[in-house]
Design brief:
Layout (H helix, E strand, L loop, with lengths): L20 E2 L6 E2 L4 E3 L4 E3 H10 L19 H16 L4 H8 L3 H5 L5 H4 L7 H22 L1 H22 L10 H17 L5 H16 L5 H19 L7 H21 L12
Antiparallel strand pairs: 1-2, 3-4
Helix pairs in contact: 2-6, 6-7, 6-8, 7-8, 7-10, 7-11, 8-9, 8-10, 10-11
Length: about 280
């Protein structure tokens, strides 16, 4: 394609204006109003608009969810606030609150199913609370960035339930377990799966999981069954959610709802088994 001399060349969108450049995309002359900066030279506004419709929208994610490089995220902040508020609200009568809302298998079997979730928001003392909240801040924020807020919250709650169900199935019928550790171990499992699929460096999260498992097994007062249950459920749910992260069709959203529903249904069925049948605690 040829054009008149540069001094007389006119803009293809504004014939009354002298063109100061040629679009690098369509090679048509453009005036200063139509010029849009491109990596090399200039493009016309029409080509830029056309390319923006074809190109996918890229959403910024802080640090791409890498461990140790992500600031606190909204759902993590909310969960920490809820745990702290519950701890402060129950400080005057903590023992009775734990007995009323903690994970006690034989009472759960009698119909007090709410204990499977409420126990995950109670803590024995301030050290227990601070350790769990500090760990939640470390592992929760990068996991929330990778999964998104709704999936992250779903993973956290399902992992908390998974930890409680593990304590119910494999622990003594009269144990009284409390704490967010099961849900937090679920986030460890979730992050490990997500990071591995993205080929992140797994050394730090592997060390954190190993250290926390050693502490769980070493202290007889810690419910390690709840930790393992949360770890497994968190990993499985995060893997399932991760299959749909890049999809926007309604079918993907339905698949996520079915994943959460199926997990919840399986956990509910497991609680129908009488406690103490599979006791691993002796």
């Amino acid at each position: 394609m040829t054009y008149p001399d540069a001094a007389t060349r006119v803009c293809y969108r504004h014939p009354g204006r002298v063109a100061g450049a040629v679009c690098r995309r369509c090679e048509r002359p453009i005036c200063t109003e139509c010029m849009r900066s491109a990596p090399v030279g200039w493009q016309c506004s029409e080509c830029v608009r056309r390319d923006s419709r074809r190109s996918p929208v890229v959403r910024w994610r802080p640090s791409e969810g890498r461990l140790g490089a992500t600031r606190l995220t909204p759902v993590v902040i909310a969960l920490i606030a809820i745990n702290v508020i519950v701890y402060l609200a129950t400080s005057g009568n903590r023992t009775s609150i734990e007995l009323r809302f903690g994970v006690v298998p034989y009472l759960i079997h009698q119909g007090q199913w709410y204990r499977l979730l409420t126990g995950a928001f109670l803590h024995v003392n301030v050290t227990h609370l601070l350790f769990n909240m500090f760990t939640l801040a470390i592992i929760g924020s990068p996991t929330e960035v990778l999964l998104g807020r709704t999936r992250f919250l779903g993973t956290y709650l399902l992992a908390g339930l998974g930890g409680s169900v593990a304590s119910y199935l494999f622990g003594a019928p009269n144990i009284d377990a409390v704490g967010a550790s099961g849900a937090i171990f679920g986030l460890f499992g979730a992050y490990f799966v997500l990071a591995r699929r993205r080929r992140f460096d797994l050394r730090t999260v592997s060390i954190l999981i190993a250290i926390n498992l050693v502490i769980s097994f070493a202290d007889p007062g810690i419910d390690w069954l709840g930790h393992l249950g949360g770890l497994v459920i968190g990993a499985v749910v995060a893997w399932a959610f991760d299959q749909t992260l890049d999809g926007r069709a309604p079918a993907y959203r339905l698949l996520e709802v079915l994943t959460a529903g199926a997990t919840l249904g399986i956990l509910a069925l497991l609680v129908l088994v009488p406690p103490g049948q599979l006791n691993l605690m002796g």
